[in-house]
## 1
Amino acid sequence: MSKIAVGIIGLGTVGTGVLKLLMDDPRLRVKWVAVREIKRPRDIDLSRTRVTDNPLDVVNDPEVEILIEVAGGVGPIFELMRTAIERGKHIVTANKELIAKHGAEIFQLAQRNNVTVLFEAAVGGGIPLISTLQRGLQANRISRVAGILNGTTNYILTAMEDRRIGFEEALAEAQRLGFAEANPRDDIEGFDVAYKTTILASLAFGRFVDVESVYRQGISDITDLDISIAKEFGYRIKMIGLAERRPEGLDVRAHPMLLPVHHLLASVEGANNAIFISGSAVGDVMLVGPGAGQMPTASAVVGDVINLASALHLPDFAPYFQPAIDCEHSRACPIEDSESAFYLRFEASDTPGVIGNLGRAFETHNVSLHSLLQRGVTRDGAATIVLLTHPTREAGFAGALREIESQPTTRRIGIALRVFRQPA
Ligand SMILES: NC(=O)c1ccc[n+]([C@@H]2O[C@H](COP(=O)([O-])OP(=O)(O)OC[C@H]3O[C@@H](n4cnc5c(N)ncnc54)[C@H](OP(=O)(O)O)[C@@H]3O)[C@@H](O)[C@H]2O)c1
């Protein structure tokens, strides 16, 4: 059986892992590797492959049947993927941003050109999550997908809790140990989880969700005090991606939440990912494992490549495994229309009237208080107030928050976080 020629765009963390796994595969030949800086020393034997700094060399080679995109980013890479698909290449990508932002266009183009685009590594790293949703659970109507989809933020939150350290210290530690990138914005501000949740929602609900409509909140304002008080209230704080079918529409968001300590997701530690999928026939399924890293991610990429290569050898190959997604974009329903219980931390003057003012703001906006506590008084006379509400309309809480912020007794709003809601 002749070997299938593949090309790899990108030889960084993931690309190097992919090349390691493919080097000695009897079914495949890595004909090309494209990088940005060709002179950079590489930690891998490149004697059996051609190396270029022009990805078009790979895309224009008629012998290459499968293109592996592990470069990342969207601008030039999106253009390159379009050209490759038009040239009839099958694509395997780990690029969540690309699929979340341009999935509809990519899959339509792939269909027109009779090629397959696979993206198992784009969500959940080494966890076989996309194939589980697309194939293993296809007999189900999926009502909810919720999970810890970003190892960096989970590492930081776990470190803050375990060692009672602040956010900056935990971030620096994550960077030192290689769990966070030098520029951590995409992870800590929730973009990465928003991309992944958008992809999961599109697969689960069969409609491309507009990534711009997905509500996003990062973790950089969370303090070690929030983590310890949440614990006193019986919760752990986790960065969660949530996609849920609701009567009003699709609820898709990426933000930190307080999870009851006994919830299975609350016990997921460190850089791991975990995803809960609720299906009409199967019930609840939870997948846990390494959501990033060189070899786990390469495992998912190479799994896709082998699936494709096996199918290409079939006499009647037809593009397969393509997601059955309606390419019309749907917007996630506005966060203002949803309901949550809230955790709020703010600083107020340590004077009479604070609690009365708070009560008035909540009463005006129909928010009901669950618990309240006050922590310490600083030298300049500020007290930290922390509270939990009962489930309430998001718009009502937002109104109360604006009123609290404008009250003369309030010094500063610290953070407002939502409490994880179990499905009805
Ligand atoms: N790292 C993970 O754990 C992980 C997990 C899941 C998904 N992913 C996704 O996998 C992709 C790659 O991530 P990574 O961590 O491996 O990135 P990385 O370490 O930064 O590597 C990127 C590689 O792509 C090359 N490159 C960038 N732009 C290029 C271009 N226009 N033409 C040719 N080569 C180009 C770079 O070349 P030089 O080496 O010459 O600079 C580098 O080798 C991203 O989409 C990421 O989101 C990563």
## 2
Amino acid sequence: MTDFDFLTDVVDSSKVDYGEGPREEHSADWASELIGAGVTPDAVVTPTSTEDVSRVLEACDSRGVPVTPYAAGTALEGHVVPVERGVSLDTTEMDSVVDVRPDDFQVDVQPGVIGTDVDDAVERHGLFYPPLPSSGGISTIGGMIATDAGGMQTVKYGKIGDWVVGLECVLADGSVVRCGGRAEKSSSGYNLKDMVVGSEGTLAVVTEATLRLKGIPDEIRGARALFPDIDSAADAVSDAVRSEVDVAKIELIDDVAARMANEYLGTDLPDTPMVFLEFHANHGVEREVEFAEAVFRQHDVDEFKTASRERMEDLWEIRSELGFAVRSYDPSLHPVQAGDVAVPISRYPEMVKEIKRLGDEYDVLVPVFGHAGDGNVHYAPMADPDDQDQYQRAVEVYERAVERALDLGGTATAEHGIGRGKRHYLEREHGAEAVDVMRRIKDALDPNGTLNPGKVLPDED
Ligand SMILES: Cc1cc2nc3c(=O)[nH]c(=O)nc-3n(C[C@H](O)[C@H](O)[C@H](O)COP(=O)(O)OP(=O)(O)OC[C@H]3O[C@@H](n4cnc5c(N)ncnc54)[C@H](O)[C@@H]3O)c2cc1C
């Protein structure tokens, strides 16, 4: 008998695992060494229904046992790494597409559904789910809702939270709550749905979601633009967005990131900063492409080439693989952490230049890329963890870039979330009063503090 045998009283024993292997697997995500190691959970529970989730949460809460919701584990800030042992609640078996309602442009899914599986389920109706992150093929809808993920198409369509109509959730004490509904708009009551979106498993466990869908556009065009330097590339993006060029994707990739992609994928991207673009329309898409090119011509673009559908898919594949390319570039160099700042679009060029300048000042290799149209910069200062001096310099670059983003009116995290890694920026970004309100919400919904403790909110001392 272990202390956790109560779990098999509330769910079938096949759903509870005390084995070392699964417990170890559930003690890590994609976060770097900088976040620090967490602890191994005492048990992994894999529910298959809302009732399972409710029973497990109620049983754990009444015993003061912490529960860390865990989906695909692709979060980048230590979100799913337990800090107080307890139960890792693995939602990946709740992976059904429950109901597609094409006439309403809606789909109901369980939280463990992989993002691109939503597209696969609705494509035959001429529909798609626009806000998927670059990790859409390896991460789940529950994880995306919990982090309010964004993606390459966020510049046109918005974030995950903008495409959630309703949620079924389980609170820490096991009560099942519906937030939102099926109406496309509603002004009824407090907006609980949007409070759960982005709450990183600290307020509730999502057990079902109603998602909004969109018709696949009739016309899709792609383009690639090459620039002589990063400054012109960043200026061009900022100008294009402020000129309201109607882009569906606009991604910047600097020469360092392009080199890493070439090494990892065997591609032949030129050794220069570049921007990948995609345009969606039901008519007149060529005019938008011409408009973008005209704006880019004012910023010394060296080459602006439209891409065939096939070539464009290759470019997006390269972009989606960049996270892997950065990690694989040099076995002795690790990214100290995945930077995810965003600033108002008029300050975007300044932010990009500052990160490159910091890399030069500290003599650290820093690939820069990201969802440029949202003012979102991903950057990954690289260092050898055994070289303490280099590692510290890379950490300085990482942290000074966040500080600068906040100075420019931006955010420490545009889409990855706070997790454990960015808690110390929360008060600086929102103010002590706002963080106090967040604490009161947490206390009201989870008075025993059992849901994903040690995440989002900074320690009180
Ligand atoms: C290569 C790569 C590329 C990436 N690209 C992007 C990108 O473009 N945009 C972006 O936003 N992010 C990106 N990410 C980060 C990550 O993929 C996203 O945050 C994703 O949404 C996490 O989903 P997941 O299923 O892996 O969730 P997990 O990592 O398992 O969990 C994430 C958080 O959600 C909570 N959670 C999980 N399921 C539930 C549930 N049912 N109810 C309540 N809480 C829950 C967990 O407790 C945790 O706090 C990338 C990561 C990688 C590795």
